[in-house]
Amino acid sequence: MSATITIATTELRRVGRDRSNLFFIVALPVLVIVVIGATIGATGGRSEIGVLDLDGSARSAELVDALGANASLEVTAYDDADELAVDVRLDRVRAGVVIPAGYGDALATGTPVAVDMVVDPSRGTTAAARAAVAGVVDGESAVVAAATFTAERAGLEPDAARDRAEAAAASVAPVAVVAEEVGRGGIDAGSPFTYPAAANLVLFTFINTLAVGAVLVESRRLGVARRILAGPVTPTAVVAGFGVSRFLVALVQGALVIALGAWVFDVAWGDPLAATALVVLFALVATGVGVLVGALARSAEQAQSVGIPVAIGLGMLGGAMWPLQFVPDWLRQLGHVTPHAWAMDGWVAVIFDGAGVADIATELAVLAGFAAVLLGVSAVALRRVVTRG
C-alpha cells in the first residue's frame, strides 16, 4: 500500500509541474461555463430584437410600444436598415423588425400592410423572438380587423372605430394558458450556468483525465516503472499507483467544478449523496480510459492529439455539449453508447428533478458497469506494459 501511495503522489507532482495541465483542469472549465452560461442568460430569458420604424407615425409608435411591453422581448431602436441587418447577422440582436413607411396611413384606411422581420436563417435561436413578435403583430392585426369591421357596419370614421376597438380589446380579459409538465422538464433551474456547469463537469473530467494519460506515457518513456520494479515493488502496486493518481485528478476536477459552480455561479447541485455518487463513478470511468490511453499510446503527443478530439466527440454525442432532449430520438439513443449520456441523465435528474440515489439507480449502475470494464481492461494493458518494460 505504501508503494502505491508513493507512486500516486509522485505522479500527481508530475502532473502539477505542467502548467498547461493546471490551465485545462482549473481555468478552462470555468471559462467555458462563463461563456455558455452568459450566452444562455444574457437577456434574462428575453429575446433582444432591433426595431426600425420607417413610418414615424402614432400608429407605428404604438406597435413599438406593444413590442417593448411584451415580457419575452427586449427592444432596441435602430435608425438604419443596414446597421440592423449587420447586428442580426452578428447575433447582437436575435431578430429585426422593420415597420414600413405608410404603416399608419394603411391602418387608417383599413389597407393590409406587412411588417417585415430580419432574421438569420442559420440560427435556431430566432424562433422564440419570431413567435413573440408574431404574437404582438397578430394582436395589433386583431384590433385593426375589428376597427375595419366596426367602421363598415356602423359607418364610423376609421380613427373613431379604431378607438372603440382598442377600448374593447382592453376590456376583454386575456385567456390564461396553464402549462402542466409531465415527465422530465426542461433545463431551467434558476441559474443560467446550471446546465453548462454539469455538462462541463462531465466533459472536462473525461478530457483532462484522458489528457493526463499522456503523463503516464512519458513515465513509460523515461523508464520510471522499470526503476520502481527494480526495488521490492510488485507490478500490481505500480499499476495501482498510476491508476490512483488518475482517479485523484478526476476527483479534483469534479470537486473544483462543483465548488466553483455553487460559490461563483449559484448552481444548486441537488442531493449531495447522489451528486457524490455521480462524481465518483464518472471519475472511475475517466480513470479507466486515461490509464488505457497511457498504456497503449506510443507517445505523449499521440495520447493528446488523438485522445482529446475523441473525448470531445464523445462529449458531443453524449449530451455534454447540448441537452440530448433537443436532438432526434435516434441520435439520443446512439448517444447512450457513451458513459457521458448516462452521467448527464443522472445530473439532469438530480439537479432539475430533485432526484436522489434511488431515483438514478439505473444511471449509476450503468456507469459502474462502464467503470468496471474500463478499469479491468486498462489494468491488464498497463500491467503488460510495465512488466515488459
Structural summary, described in words:
By secondary structure, the protein is mainly alpha-helical. It has helices at 2-17, 19-41, 58-69, 81-89, 103-109, 127-154, 158-171, 194-221, 224-229, 235-263, 272-296, 300-317, 329-335, 339-352, 361-388; strands at 47-53, 73-78, 95-99, 116-118. It has a 4-stranded mixed beta sheet, sandwiched between helices. Strand 1 (47-53), helix 3 and strand 2 form a beta-alpha-beta unit.
Topology at a glance:
Blueprint lengths: L1 H16 L1 H23 L5 E7 L4 H12 L3 E6 L2 H9 L5 E5 L3 H7 L6 E3 L8 H28 L3 H14 L22 H28 L2 H6 L5 H29 L8 H25 L3 H18 L11 H7 L3 H14 L8 H28 L1
Parallel strand pairs: 1-2, 1-3
Antiparallel strand pairs: 3-4
Helix pairs in contact: 1-10, 2-8, 2-10, 6-7, 8-10, 8-11, 8-12, 8-14, 10-11, 10-15, 11-14, 11-15, 14-15
CA-to-CA gap between the ends?
A: 22 Å
Mean pLDDT: 77
Estimated helix fraction: 55-70%
Strand-residue fraction? 5-15%
Question: Class by helix and strand content?
Answer: mainly alpha
Q: How many whole angstroms does the radius of gyration measure?
A: 29 Å
Uncertain segments are 172-189
Count up the helices: 15
Largest sheet: 4 strands, mixed
- The arrangement of helices and strands along the chain is HHEHEHEHEHHHHHHHHHH
The spatial strand order of the largest sheet comes to 2-1-3-4
Number of strands: 4
Shape from CA axes? Answer: elongated
